[in-house]
Amino acid sequence: MAKNSKDSKEMKSTLVVLTLNEIEGMKKVMPRVKKSWVDEMILADGGSTDGTREYAKELGMRVVDQKTKGRGEAFRVGAEAAKNEILVYFSPDGNEDPNDIPKLIDKIREGYDMAIASRFSSKSISEDATLIRRIGNNMFTGIINILFGIWITDAVNGYRAVRKSVMQDLKTDANRFEIEIQMTMRCAKKKYKITEIPTFEGQRIGGVAKLNTLKDGWAYTKLILKEFFMKNDAAK
Q1: Contact assessment for residue 81 and residue 37, using Cβ atoms and an 8 Å cutoff
Q2: Spatial CB neighbours of 184, under 8 Å, sequence gap ≥ 6
Q3: 166 lies in a domain?
Q4: Residue 112: inside a domain
Q5: Range of the domain at 121
Q6: Residue 212 C-alpha from the chain's centroid
Q7: Which of 29, 71, 178, 229 could in theory staple to 174 by disulfide, Cβ–Cβ 3.0 to 4.6 A?
Q8: What's the pTM value of the predicted model, to 2 decimals?
Q9: By C-alpha distance, which of 183, 224, 156, 7 is closest to 78?
Q10: Are the C-beta atoms of residues 64 and 45 closer than 8 Å to each other?
Q11: CA neighbours within 13 Å on the CB side: how many for 210?
């Protein structure tokens, strides 16, 4: 488990913006992100061809390329490239509220190892979650809570902050959207401190949703079983 240092309140932060052809969202969302909120902003890009990369450079962001395709790889590439201890993973597609960026950072500075923006807490609002998505997310979160001894309301959302040292210690290997639940489960296994903040999930802006309900739902199921049955070894 990560130990909280006396200077935790002084930890610097990196905003890792995850993209694959999100130019419409970038132009509408990124102007709402205040530079004073973070010490560094980088773009972890999966090979955009719609001007996303060029626009990020216009904003002064450093662009890092994924070595292979997949959201999981974007998380790892972003962590590797970040210069600071606090990482905030953010998707500029309209779903994630930029105003939560400093709130997530504050939670890490308070001493938590990972902070998740929950779409399904009692104080949260989601304009984008369909009934099927809501049921699926609640089901997977409930299973993870039971199997790994935690109590959170959204184990699935990728909008979160984590300490870089913790992210590296988790040694994730998930390829697609299951990276998020793998981070949650491995944090739980290693007894890292997890917290949540309520968030507002808006409707998607442009682009194409990359989540495939059936494909990713099956991947979640397989990964949960894998992580549970190897939990003793992984927690060492």
Answers
A1: no
A2: 114, 116, 144, 150, 152, 155, 156, 194
A3: yes
A4: yes
A5: 10-234
A6: 17
A7: 178
A8: 0.91
A9: 183
A10: yes
A11: 18
Per-residue model confidence (pLDDT) at position 128: 84
pLDDT digits (tens, 9 = 90+) for 137-193: 999 999 999 999 999 999 999 999 999 999 999 999 999 999 999 999 999 999 999
How many domains are there within the chain?
1
Phi and psi dihedrals of 107, rounded to 5? -65, -40
Phi/psi of residue 45, each to 5°? -115, 140
Domain membership flag for residue 101: yes
- pLDDT per residue over 71-111, tens digit each? 999 999 999 999 999 999 999 999 999 999 999 999 999 99
Going by the DSSP 8-state scheme, the letter that residue 146 receives in this structure is H
Strand partners, 65: 45
CATH of the domain at 108: 3.90.550.10
